[in-house]
């Protein structure tokens, strides 16, 4: 090892993992929280982590307060304690200092040194046990520390309670109950013991938990006790008791933060369960008036409250036809102005307002808001992290890294480490992604916060996508489930999507239902900040049921979601699609209208509504809907395609060509536009133009099975039967889950007299998609042709088992068929060169209107010169990477 490397190694050991370490006048020595000195073995790995988390000198410069803090933190080395108590206090400060630096084994050793000096120091036993439990979870060190501590300090309630919570977290509930009982023997009214013990009892005995919380509240009111008891009342639908409880204890709580927590719970009760909107607003207003350090928390809650009111009214249009300003955004803007004038304690409202702007794709506005917040709160680590996310989305990866580092140096947080991990994964500083480093960062995030659901979600997804290791990905999610994360929707949604990607439909359904129930439980007594993630979970569950042909179940899920989370455009669209499938066209129209009113940029809602009107013959209404959708989302290719297809069906070929041309100008990477145009030219007898267009479509997306069918039909019409069959075979390789390709190839082989091969292809198609009825017809025709009566009988039984005419009682085979289709998309070796299907839609936030005249012939000429040098047969010889 060179001298330079040795020096780097020593420096990194000393400072790389620390937060709050003493900077003797320089910000460079306040480094981020990493694992202990044994957790990273190689110098290169440590150096890499150091390079990621090293702060920039230009961010958050040190000041006199930092220097004074550093002097205080170093005081334990300069003072010469005289008494044992002073020695214990000094060593305890040293242990805290070492733990913040990440030197946990040394911190543990220091705490053990304290216990040598004072074997009855309960604080040191508690600190040692907690450190062992957090840092070395797979060892028995924590249990030994708790046992030694309670033996030396048998009257320490906090030690007994902490030990009970530890046993509960590792799954030993009977032992936890025994330890809680020992703590209550010492202090029967201790609010912390009663609250924690009640949460354990509530799982199986709600009455016992309620009695215990009521018992504790006789002596002291705390937010934890009041809110837990109130939630229990609400779960039992005893809303009056909950209201009385909140009113009785609200003014008994001395802490501003805890009093605010109870006030917010009371406002949620009035809004959600009594529909007392004015009462809820009054509670929030009074809480804001009385709040001191927690004012920003109330301001965000008020903004969310106003946003929900707007969402439930479903009337976002003003009389002038414009869009009414977002109520939540308006309230947050007012709160930001108040913070600027009053110098609030934190930048929470700026963060919330910037989040709204990011979701609306107004990134420049979000950047300005966060900059204003950072001017007032330069040491707010969450603002720095949010600013880093905005810079990352704007493509400024260097700036994002600088902001993430600054956030980490102020306060270690799991969200920030997750953000760094994802940045290193997708935009590494070197040519090749260091995935081992990315995994290490995820582990660091979970070490800081073992209950951070998005960390499990992102970690498992990265493992699955990068290493194709489904077992490890599933194991990560299972860790998250055991951790009982407060954001249950995010965790279960990610877990279910993993199972769904693997074709495990039943497992995915079970996880989504569990996640839905967990999310509902978590927001019984308060407004959850994770409501939007729960909404996404409900949407996924509804679409799973819809794709499984469980229409009634899907409609129930979507309706339940709207009741629970308000008029979400996605949920309303799902419900509308269900009504269409059930034949309730009028109900579907109402839901489509609500969907587009709630989100005018929801392209799929405009498209689906337009297609419904087109199918029912309401051409004028369909045209209006397509035009509205295109005006709001001009770069959504399928909208242009649907509009052009309608015009072509009406015989307006020139208008259809013009629409395809305009759509391609707006969404040049939309293969569906080229494919639709190719179909139009094929119907018009322009085979050469159709060949040009379908070649471009397949170049953009080789997984588009319909494109291969069109390409084959073109060659068939041109008399190139051999090339036509080759294109069908290539289509089956690239899009193995498209049943129409198997049918076309099977019928082609049957026409050539290749009976056995045709039967094999048709059977393979049914294996990929057992719900595709035309395959049964083709296979029946084949068996009848060879007089295979037994084969026809088996085929009839198979079809009868698959298709159920009663839509109220869908067959399990529907889910199995969808699972087969998903698994077919993940095949790697049968058929040859099969890869996973990739479907994407390009969108943009700019509204673009182009009324200029369009010349479709110019585009076709350009495509001809680019793509037909070697003909469509190029698609058969190009590698997968080239396509």
From TrEMBL:
Record-linked InterPro entries: HAT, Mbb1-like, TPR-like_helical_dom_sf, TPR_rpt
Protein's GO biological process: mRNA processing; regulation of translation
Biased composition range(s): Basic residues: 71-85
Keyword RNA-binding: no
Keywords: Signal, TPR repeat
GO molecular function: mRNA binding; single-stranded RNA binding
TPR repeats: 157-190, 223-256, 739-772
Annotated coiled-coil segments of the chain: none
Superkingdom of origin organism: Eukaryota
Statement: the UniProt record of this protein carries the keyword Signal: yes
Region of interest (Disordered), residue spans: 45-85
Signal peptide region: 1-18
Biased segments, Polar residues type: 53-65
Protein name (record): Superkiller protein 3
Originating species: Fistulifera solaris (Oleaginous diatom)
Organism classification: Eukaryota, Sar, Stramenopiles, Ochrophyta, Bacillariophyta
């Amino acid at each position: 090892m060179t001298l330079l490397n040795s020096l780097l190694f020593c420096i990194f050991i000393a400072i790389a993992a620390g937060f709050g370490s003493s900077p003797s006048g320089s910000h460079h020595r306040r480094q981020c929280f990493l694992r202990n000195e044994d957790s990273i073995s190689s110098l290169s790995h440590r150096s890499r982590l150091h390079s990621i988390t090293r702060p920039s000198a230009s961010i958050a410069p040190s000041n006199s307060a930092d220097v004074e803090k550093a002097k205080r933190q170093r005081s334990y080395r300069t003072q010469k304690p005289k008494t044992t108590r002073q020695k214990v206090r000094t060593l305890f400060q040293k242990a805290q200092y070492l733990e913040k630096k990440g030197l946990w084994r040394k911190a543990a050793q220091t705490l053990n040194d304290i216990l040598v000096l004072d074997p009855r120091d309960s604080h040191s036993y508690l600190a040692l046990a907690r450190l062992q439990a957090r840092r070395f979870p797979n060892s028995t060190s924590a249990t030994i520390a708790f046992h030694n501590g309670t033996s030396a300090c048998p009257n320490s309630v906090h030690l007994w309670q902490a030990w009970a919570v530890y046993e509960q977290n590792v799954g030993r509930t009977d032992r936890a109950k025994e330890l809680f009982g020992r703590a209550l023997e010492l202090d029967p009214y201790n609010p912390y013991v009663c609250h924690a013990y009640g949460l354990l009892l509530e799982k199986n005995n709600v009455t016992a938990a309620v009695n215990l919380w009521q018992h504790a509240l006789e002596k002291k009111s705390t937010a934890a006790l009041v809110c837990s008891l109130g939630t229990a009342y609400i779960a039992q639908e005893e809303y009056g008791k909950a209201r009385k409880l909140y009113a009785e204890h609200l003014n008994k709580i001395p802490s501003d933060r805890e009093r605010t927590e109870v006030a917010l719970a009371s406002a949620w009760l009035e809004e959600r369960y009594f529909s007392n909107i004015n009462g809820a607003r009054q509670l929030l207003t009074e809480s804001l008036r009385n709040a001191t350090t927690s004012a920003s928390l109330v301001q965000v809650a008020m903004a969310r409250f106003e946003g929900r009111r707007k969402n439930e009214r479903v009337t976002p249009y003003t009389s002038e036809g414009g869009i009414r300003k977002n109520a939540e955004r308006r309230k947050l803007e007012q709160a930001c102005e108040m913070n600027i004038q009053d110098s609030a304690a934190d930048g929470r409202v700026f963060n919330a307002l910037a989040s709204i702007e990011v979701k609306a794709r107004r990134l420049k506005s979000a950047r300005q808001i966060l900059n204003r917040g950072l001017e007032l709160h330069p040491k707010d680590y969450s603002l720095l992290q949010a600013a880093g996310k905005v810079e990352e989305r704007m493509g400024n990866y260097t700036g994002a890294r600088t902001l993430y580092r600054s956030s980490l140096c102020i306060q270690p947080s799991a969200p920030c480490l997750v953000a760094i991990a994802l940045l290193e994964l997708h935009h590494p500083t070197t040519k090749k992604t260091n995935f081992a480093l990315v995994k290490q960062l995820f582990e660091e995030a979970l070490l800081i916060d073992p209950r951070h659901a998005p960390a499990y979600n992102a970690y498992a997804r990265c493992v699955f996508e990068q290493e194709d290791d489904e077992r490890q990905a599933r194991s990560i999610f299972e860790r998250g489930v055991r951790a009982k994360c407060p954001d249950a929707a995010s965790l279960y949604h990610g877990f279910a999507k993993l199972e769904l990607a693997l074709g495990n439909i039943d497992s995915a359904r079970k996880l989504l239902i569990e996640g839905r129930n967990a999310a509902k439980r978590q927001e019984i007594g308060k407004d959850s900040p994770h409501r939007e993630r729960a909404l996404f979970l409900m949407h996924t569950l509804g679409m799973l049921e819809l794709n499984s042909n469980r229409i009634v179940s899907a409609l129930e899920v979507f309706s339940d979601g709207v009741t629970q989370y308000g008029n979400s455009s996605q949920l309303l669209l799902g419900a509308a699609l269900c009504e269409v499938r059930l034949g309730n066209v009028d109900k579907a129209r109402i839901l489509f209208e609500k969907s587009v009113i709630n989100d005018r940029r929801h392209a799929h809602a405009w498209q689906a509504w337009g297609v419904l009107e087109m199918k029912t013959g309401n051409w004028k209404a369909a045209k209006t809907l397509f035009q509205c959708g295109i005006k709001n989302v001009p770069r959504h290719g399928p909208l242009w395609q649907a509009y052009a297809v309608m015009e072509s069906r009406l015989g307006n070929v020139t208008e259809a060509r013009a629409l395809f041309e305009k759509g391609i100008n707006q969404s040049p990477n939309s293969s569906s536009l080229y494919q639709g145009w190719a179909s139009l030219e094929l119907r018009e007898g322009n085979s050469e133009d159709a060949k040009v267009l379908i070649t471009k479509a397949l170049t953009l997306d080789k997984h588009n099975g319909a494109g291969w069918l069109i390409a084959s039909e073109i060659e068939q019409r041109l008399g190139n039967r051999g090339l036509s069959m080759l294109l069908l075979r290539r289509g089956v390789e690239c899009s193995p889950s498209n049943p129409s390709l198997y049918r076309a190839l099977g019928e082609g082989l049957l026409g050539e007299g290749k009976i056995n091969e045709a039967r094999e292809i048709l059977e393979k198609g049914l294996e990929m998609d057992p719900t595709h009825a035309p395959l049964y017809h083709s296979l029946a025709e084949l068996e009848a042709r060879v007089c295979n009566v037994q084969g026809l009988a088996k085929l009839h039984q198979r079809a009868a088992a698959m298709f159920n005419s009663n839509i109220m009682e869908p067959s399990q085979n529907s889910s199995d068929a969808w699972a087969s289709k998903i698994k077919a998309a993940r095949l790697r070796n049968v058929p040859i060169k099969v890869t996973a299907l990739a479907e994407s839609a390009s969108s943009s936030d700019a509204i673009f209107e182009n009324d200029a005249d369009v010349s479709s012939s110019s585009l076709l000429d350009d495509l001809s010169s680019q793509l037909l040098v070697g003909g469509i047969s190029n698609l058969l010889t190009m590698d997968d990477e080239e396509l």
